[in-house]
Design a protein that fits this description.
The protein is of the alpha/beta class and 417 residues long. The chain contains 19 helices and 13 strands.
């Protein structure tokens, strides 16, 4: 009898050890289109004892395609970082689980988030993730070329009420100077993108057009208002007062030279570019300024928000651990230039921006952004988005007319549907 008791005790002891080893070996799998966020991973592993396996797929488009393949093969990771242009498609294809049940016991938690951030992750009445990064598209400017040419800076125009779509164009025109043979720029008035819908959207909105419906399910490029807006924007690209990052090689210009260098007056870009300016051009960081895009000709906001987030997959067997990881990363203030997703972290962001960029009044900027931000284009299908941006880019740089671009895009969209 005693021998049997000893045997049972040993078996129980061994079982406890095995259970402990299994628990210790638990791994949370996470995927994203950017390098592993080591700070968060190390913090989570230290706090929970759970190992993290991070799957890095460079380029957001390739990443979203890989997520679809994981879904087909039933090999989805536990946690997905979600690029803004993937929210609708991933949720509609059942690759993200609603998290409303996880929030049911803590509804107050949501009140700390900016409403736009939550709206970006809502679909069909469910919340399919939480925002971890808010990137408004803004006008980042170097005041020095404005002062050299006696032109009011965007900040000065905001203060005196003259910052309008036309004043942005006029400022860009006054700051633009090309070599006599027009082979390259001596001074660039405005740098932006002609091949990315989220970057082009503020200009379309400024001049009265719209690219996509609110749900992202319908493109609105065929409307008269949008055609006229695109034709006006194309004229500024072709007059060379707007320079497209995607067309820079035609002028023998380097990507970073035009974005963080000293020959550019204004940059139509998302706000994280400030981090690149700080690391690559301290001289510019000491004077750089930021303003929202001017209100549109119809009085509507034009500063688009690109909101990246994080969600849990429907096949995850570690929902509680995945949710703990998400809560942890959202509790830690970001050290980047992105706008905080939670209002309780605004103070930290304002202090960091004021310290790093003496030319920016971060509190005033935050107030301006809150008054003029809207969600960027919400795209349901990556294939459809690719068709539209490809044809629009060709029209912007003068390869085809805007009318041809719209007709070709609508024809291909019809075939895709």
């Amino acid at each position: 009898m005693r021998r049997m008791e000893k045997t049972m005790v040993c078996l129980v002891f061994i079982g406890v050890l095995l259970i402990g080893q299994v628990a210790a070996a638990k791994t949370l799998t996470i995927a994203g289109w950017f390098p592993a966020p080591e700070k968060y991973i190390e913090m989570f592993e230290e706090q929970t004892g759970i190992d993290v396996e991070y799957i890095y797929v460079p380029d957001s488009r390739a990443y979203l395609e890989r997520v679809v393949l994981w879904g087909i093969g039933d090999t989805l990771p536990d946690v997905l970082f979600v690029p803004y242009w993937g929210v609708n498609s991933l949720a509609s294809h059942g690759l993200l689980r609603p998290i409303d049940d996880l929030l049911a016991a803590d509804e107050a938690y949501l009140f700390d988030f900016l409403p736009q951030g939550l709206e970006a992750f809502r679909r069909d009445g469910g919340l399919y993730g939480l925002p971890f990064e808010l990137n408004p598209d803004v006008v980042i400017f170097d005041p020095r070329p404005f002062e050299e040419r006696a032109v009011l800076t965007p900040s000065q125009q905001v203060k005196n009420g003259t910052w309008t779509p036309q004043s942005l164009v006029d400022s860009a025109r006054k700051l633009t100077e090309l070599t006599p043979d027009e082979s390259t720029y001596i001074s660039i008035g405005m740098v932006t993108w002609s091949d990315q819908l989220n970057r082009l959207a503020p200009y379309v909105w400024m001049f009265g057009g719209e690219l996509v419906s609110e749900t992202g399910e319908e493109f609105l490029i065929g409307t008269i208002e949008t055609k006229e807006a695109l034709e006006e924007i194309a004229r500024y690209f072709q007059e060379k007062i707007f320079l497209s990052v995607a067309y820079r090689t035609a002028y023998n210009l380097d990507h970073w030279e035009i974005l963080v260098g000293n020959r550019t007056g204004m940059r139509g870009c998302d706000i994280p570019l400030l981090g690149d300016i700080a690391s690559q051009n301290p001289q510019l960081a000491a004077v750089v300024g930021v303003v929202p895009y001017p209100m549109g000709i119809n009085g509507e906001p034009t500063t688009g928000l690109t909101i990246h987030g994080v969600g849990i997959t429907p096949t995850s067997q570690q929902v509680e651990e995945a949710w703990s990881f998400i809560r942890m990363i959202l509790d830690v203030p970001s050290d980047g230039a992105s706008i905080p997703v939670r209002q309780s972290q605004f103070g930290d962001w304002i202090q960091r921006v004021d310290t790093a960029f003496p030319g920016i009044d971060a509190l005033s900027l935050m107030q301006q952004l809150n008054a003029g931000m809207r969600l960027g284009p919400r795209i349901l299908s990556q294939d459809m988005e690719y068709v539209v941006r490809t044809y629009i880019h060709r029209a912007m740089i003068g390869r085809i007319s805007v009318v041809q671009a719209i007709e070709n895009a609508l024809a291909q969209l019809s075939a895709l549907q």
